[in-house]
Design brief:
Structural class: alpha+beta
CATH topology: Alpha-Beta Plaits
Radius of gyration: 16 Å
CATH superfamily: 7,8-Dihydro-6-hydroxymethylpterin-pyrophosphokinase HPPK
Strand content: 25-35%
Distance between the termini: 44 Å
CATH architecture: 2-Layer Sandwich
CATH class: Alpha Beta
Helix content: 25-40%
Oligomer: single chain
C-alpha cells in the first residue's frame, strides 16, 4: 500500500490546450488526444470544441480548440517533448510563429507550478493564456474553480477581463 501512495504523489494534474486550423481539425484533435494516452497520460476531462478566429491573423483559417485535464507522472520538459513529437506526427511544420498548423499542443498549467526554461521555450503557466478566449472558456467549462498559479486570479475574473469582441468571436461547437 505504501508503494501506491508514493506513486500517487508523483502524479501531477495538468491542463493542455489542443488546437488545429488545417486539415480535418476535429480529427486532428482526436488523434492528438489518442496519442497522448500512449505516454503515461490519462485524460480526466475534456472540454467541448470551440471555434475561434486565427490569432493574431484572422485571415488564416479558423481554429478548433479544446482544453483537456490530464494526470501524468511526466516532468514538464518530458511532457513538452511528447507534445512536440505528437505535433510533428500530425504533420505540423514550424515556419513562422502563429502560422496555420495541423496540431498545436500547449501546456497551459502544470500542477499549479511556476516553471521557466527559456532555452526550451517553456514558461508555466502558459505565458499568454490570460488573454486568450480559446484557452479561458474551455478551461472554465472543465474547471470553474481554477485559479492562475502565479496571480491567484480566478478563471471567472480572467474571463471577465476579456474584451467583449473576444467573447463574441468564439463559439462552442
Amino acid at each position: 500500500m505504501i508503494k501506491q501512495d508514493i506513486l500517487e504523489n508523483l502524479v501531477k494534474l495538468v491542463y493542455l490546450g489542443i488546437g488545429s486550423n488545417l486539415g480535418n481539425k476535429n480529427n486532428n484533435i482526436e488523434i492528438a488526444k489518442s496519442k497522448l494516452q500512449n505516454y503515461q497520460i490519462k485524460i480526466l476531462k475534456c472540454s467541448s470544441n470551440y471555434e475561434s478566429e486565427s490569432w493574431p491573423d484572422p485571415k488564416n483559417p479558423k481554429f478548433i480548440n479544446i482544453i483537456i485535464k490530464i494526470k501524468t507522472s511526466l516532468s514538464p520538459l518530458e511532457l513538452l517533448k511528447i507534445c512536440n513529437l505528437i505535433e510533428i506526427q500530425l504533420g505540423r511544420k514550424r515556419f513562422k510563429k502563429n502560422s496555420p498548423r495541423t496540431c498545436d499542443i500547449d501546456i497551459i498549467d502544470y500542477d499549479q507550478k511556476i516553471f521557466i526554461d527559456k532555452s526550451r521555450n517553456l514558461i508555466l503557466p502558459h505565458n499568454s493564456m490570460t488573454q486568450r478566449n480559446f484557452v479561458l472558456l474551455p478551461l472554465f467549462e472543465i474547471d470553474q474553480s481554477w485559479q492562475h498559479p502565479k496571480s491567484r486570479i480566478s478563471i471567472v475574473k480572467l474571463i471577465s477581463s476579456l474584451q467583449i469582441k473576444d467573447l463574441r468571436s468564439i463559439k462552442q461547437i
